[in-house]
Amino acid sequence: MPFVAKIVLTLAVFGLLIFVHELGHFLMAKKAGVLVHEFALGMGPRLFSFRKNGTLYSIRLLPIGGFVQMEGEDGDGEGEGSFSRKKKSVRLGVLAAGAAMNLILGFVLTFAVVVSAPALGGKTVHSFAQNATSNLYGLQAGDEILAIAGKRVSVSSDISYLIVGYGAEPCDVLVRRDGEKVLLKSVEFPNGLDESSGLRYGMVDFSVQAVPKNVGTVLQHTFLRTVSTAKSIWRSLGDLITGRYGIKQMSGPVGMTDTIGASVADGWRSLVSLVAFITINLGVMNLLPLPALDGGRILFLLIEVIRGKPMKPEYEGYINFVGLVLLLLLMVVVTYNDIVKLFV
């Protein structure tokens, strides 16, 4: 796929996910009777706008982010339509609605992938590949995999994620064999090397048994895969904090262009799976209790509940400003790393 086409597709994907996120805030605010001044996609100068029912709808020049500007969201609004005058439960709902919409979209997209799959993979080992090593360290056909590297396995996609992420080094594998739990110590998997990041990764060297495909199993797999994706994001954050991965292993929209392009080449199911992962990622990340994110505003709201009174708007503004600056600096560093990788 031409590079320009990759960029256009990447902007379209992120534009859709940002629209869905902001739509969540917008719909919940409207339902709660909050006056919405503007619903914007993008940042910077307005390119196109129109007004309807008191709300300005606009598309802005820079295709990054978006926002829903509400009356009183900074704590200084008056009247019935002010966000700050609504009940705490209502404000919590408005703040969480954006992330909730991303997670719901992730579930819907994951359902499309699961329901269209020719078969559903289980957690029981079926057979080993020719270059397999895990069978030399105790893993057997018929073993039901319960955990890898101390991380619980709920669905077949967990197996791939955990082996790729933790299988570069010997790791413990918990299985159920003949009705009993057996812990296999220091199982080794084949390794691969990601040349762009220099990281080694584990490779799955066995296939799993299929499970019957029906309404129940499709819904179960969809739910478990959605939860699994969210858990993998939390684990990745933990690995970043503990230093297992460095900032150079992070990737932003620029770095995602090649990934999205490759997924298109692999077929629509691959692309939809990737978009599901990104939207779930966006939902989880926005709930982190960090300034400038929805989770940070939710944290301020919880502090208000505990203190019995809100934090002074100017203090909250200062904290959010510092958080926004740090977030923008992180984006600059990640984007720089992405650009460097493109030309290495």
Could you explain how this protein is built, in words?
- The chain is built from eight helices and ten strands.
- It is of the alpha+beta class and 344 residues long.
- The chain has two domains: 1-117 and 214-344, no CATH class; 119-212, PDZ domain (Pdz3 Domain, Roll), CATH 2.30.42.10.
- A hairpin with a 2-residue loop joins strand 6 (171-177) and strand 7.
- The longest helix has 30 residues, at 313-342.
List the defining traits of the structure above:
alpha+beta; 344 residues; 4-stranded antiparallel β-sheet; 8 helices; Pdz3 Domain
Task: Kindly name the structural category.
Answer: alpha+beta
Please outline the major beta sheet.
4 strands, antiparallel
Percent of residues in helices comes to 40-55%
Low-confidence stretches: none
Q: Tell me, what's the shape?
A: elongated
The overall number of domains is: 2
Amino-to-carboxy terminus distance: 19 Å
Q: What fraction of residues sit in β-strands?
A: 15-25%
Instruction: Give the strand order of the largest sheet, numbering strands 1, 2, ... along the chain.
Output: 5-4-6-7
Number of helices: 8
User: Which radius of gyration do the C-alpha atoms yield?
Assistant: 23 Å
Number of DSSP E strands? 10
Mean pLDDT: 88
Report the order of strands and helices: HEEHEEEHEEEEEHHHHH
Provide a compact summary of the structure.
With 344 residues, the protein is of the alpha+beta class. Helices cover 51% and strands 23% of the residues.
